[in-house]
Amino acid sequence: MAIEGERKLVTVMFADVADFTSLSEKLDPEEVHQIMDGCFKILTDEIHTYEGIERKQRQYVLTRQPSDIQVPDTIQGIIAARIDRLDEGLKRIMQMASVIGREFAFRILQAIMEIKEGLKSQLVKLQGLEFIYEKSLFPKLEYIFKHALTQEVAYNSLLLKKRREIHGKIGEAIEAIYSGRLEEFYEMLAYHYSNSDHLEKAGWSLCIGASTFLKGMGEMP
Q: What is the DSSP track for the chain?
């Protein structure tokens, strides 16, 4: 049975991604699929940015050599390029959230961003771009980065000095927000303070956390 249709000449462009094999072995197939979709989006965006496609005689053809189109050659580079394309406000939210962790509570992010209004609408935009999604509404509003690699790339895009400053702010925010039940957050406090310039608070959190743990062990039947 013949396939109906029109015979056309097409140009096929291939893109090689460095370290793809080793990374794909560590990631879920769905994550690999979504990341590569991002790669192809960047590729086509670059083509359109430089007016690299035009219509000629009822078909679309490349107007530039594929080698002239610059595309990141690692998955981390692809993700970084996507983040860099965000406006500064969204990019800053991504970076601040990444320091909290792959999962982050809205109240903590709001505290360290010092934004009273508009943060939720910005997070909705990041959800629409598939960088993050809502993890839970109750008992507290929490979000999670769609991919661990996205959180990692956003985190590493910050200078070490800035990361340490943000870790310190997160520790202070946790102490303020959860002051009535800090025993649940000593491990998190120790992590953030140990990555900040408040090392004495990291030691305090570890000691109190260990004491609380041992006390709980002693009360077990």
A: -PPPS------------BTHHHHHHHS-HHHHHHHHHHHHHHHHHHHHHTT-EEEETTEEEESS-GGGS---SBHHHHHHHHHHTS-HHHHHHHHHHHHH-SEEEHHHHHHHHT-SSSHHHHHHHHHHTTSEEEEE-SSS-EEEESSHHHHHHHHHTS-HHHHHHHHHHHHHHHHHHTGGGGGGSHHHHHHHHHTSS-HHHHHHHHHHHHHHHHHHHHT--
